[in-house]
Structure formats: structure tokens, C-alpha cells
Amino acid sequence: VQGYIRTTYNADKLLSPYFRDVLSFRSLQARTGTLIAGRSALHFFDRSKLPGDPLDVFVYFHRRREVVDWFLEVGFKFIPSYNQPNDLDFYIADVIVEERPSNPPGVCGILLFQLEGSPDVTVRLFVAARSPMEIVLCSHSTCMVNVISYEKAYCLFPRATLHDHHSLLMNHEDHYAGRALDIAELEEQGFTMSDELEPIELAFAHGTSGFVLGWRWIDDSATWIIKL
Questions:
Q1: SS3 per-residue string spanning the chain
Q2: Is 212 helix (H, G, I), strand (E, B) or coil?
């Protein structure tokens, strides 16, 4: 079983389409506290990644320059969106300063990078207003609460997300621009999105249900943790 897990859930396999030197990126993660999360972490666990999917990378605000410089050094270029300046230095220094309602909670800037000569290889860099993990925990639904560090991968709701394809909507005060589209895409992928638990799920929330009541933390007994 452990051999199957090591082969199937392999960080190098996830990262090699984006980086020639995977170890260098994982060293960057360790040095800066950078995380992989969002769709990339979900696809890592449910093995649904498609060619051309961006890599979602979450970085501390005070580490944004170091991480951006690394991407530029390994051959990526900044692709500004319609409302971003072309000057990357200006955007990093002066524009990414606070959270905006158009961004997911905890995010003060999103930068898109494309590998030179490979338009299908892209990285989305989410700059955290406080911490990358806060962004993950403030996700719109439970199926998105997954994260990959430099040494381990964590899925906080493994049964619900991977076995039942059931996700509980969270953070109802969150009205960022892409929320409805994100949820619709997950439904198209086969997820059942619920506003609340059914009575039978509440009755079995400490047993066979994919949702556990009470306090949770990143490496508790209900989390599936894979050592990379």
C-alpha cells in the first residue's frame, strides 16, 4: 500500500510539467513557507489533473519578491490581467498592498506567470495578506481545503472529498467575483455542493460521515497526510 501511495501521489510527478528542477522549487517552498493549494492540491489528491491546468501557488506577502524572482530566473514571464499594470516591479511594490473584494478571502494579489515558449505551462501566484494557510482555510467549500508543503500533502476532508465527492459550502460572507464560477465548475466535475449537512450526516458525524464535528487542525486524526 505504501509503495502504491508513493508512486501515485508523487510531488515530482505533479511539479515536473512546470519546472525542470523540481528540487529547486521544493527548496524554495521550504525556505519561504510557500504552499501549493487550490485546484492543484485538489487535483493532486483526486488525480484529475489535466494538461494545461495552472499550478496554484500561495506565498507570504513578505516573501513575494523572492518567489517572483525565482520564477523569472527559471524562465517564466509575468502575464498581466486586464486590470494589472505591465510593470511587474510596480505591481509588486505598490499595488499589492491590501485585500480586495474581487479576490478570494485573505488574498491581496494574484499574478499569472507563463513559461517562455510553452503557453500551456502557467503558474498562478496568490499573495497572502497574512498567511498562505489562512487562504486555504477560508476556501469556499471543504473540497478545497487541501494543501501541499515541501514535505507533506494534507487533505482535511478525505472521505467527503475523494470518496463521496461531497463538499460543504463555507464562508458564506465571501462574495469574491469568481466564487459562483468556481462552485459551478466543481459541480460539473461531479461534486455535490451542499449548504448544510443532512440530519443523517449529523448523526454520523463522528463515525462514517465524511465530515467531523468539533475543532479541527491541519494534522489531526481526520486529515489524510502523505509524506512526500
A1: CHHHHHHHCCHHHHHCCCCCCHHHHHHHHHHHCCEECHHHHHHHHHCCCCCCCCEEEEECHHHHHHHHHHHHHCCEEECCCCCCCCCHHHHHHHHCCCCCCCCCCCEEEEEEEEECCEEEEEEEEEEECCCHHHHHHCCCEHHHCEEECCCEEEECCHHHHHHCCEEEECCCCCCCCCHHHHHHHHHHCCCEEECCCCHHHHHCCCCCCCCCCCCCCCCCCCCEEEEC
A2: coil
Three-state DSSP state, 32? helix
When pLDDT is averaged across residues 39-52 and rounded to a whole number, the result is: 89
Q: Which three cell numbers stand for residue 25?
A: 522549487
For residue 115, pLDDT over 90 is answered with: yes
pLDDT greater than 90 at residue 84: no
H or E element that contains 13:
helix 11-15
Radius of gyration of the chain (CA): 18
By the 8 A CB rule, do 58 and 35 touch? yes
Give the residues across from 128 on adjacent strands: 107
**How are beta strands 55-59 and 35-36 bridged, if at all?**
antiparallel
**Greatest extent of the chain over all pairs of C-alpha atoms, in Å:** 55
Q: What is the pTM of this model?
A: 0.89
**Whether the predicted pLDDT of 173 surpasses 70:** no
Residues 181-207 have pLDDT tens digits of 888 999 999 999 988 877 655 555 555
Q: Residue 119 has what pLDDT?
A: 93
221's CB contacts (< 8 A; 6+ apart) are none
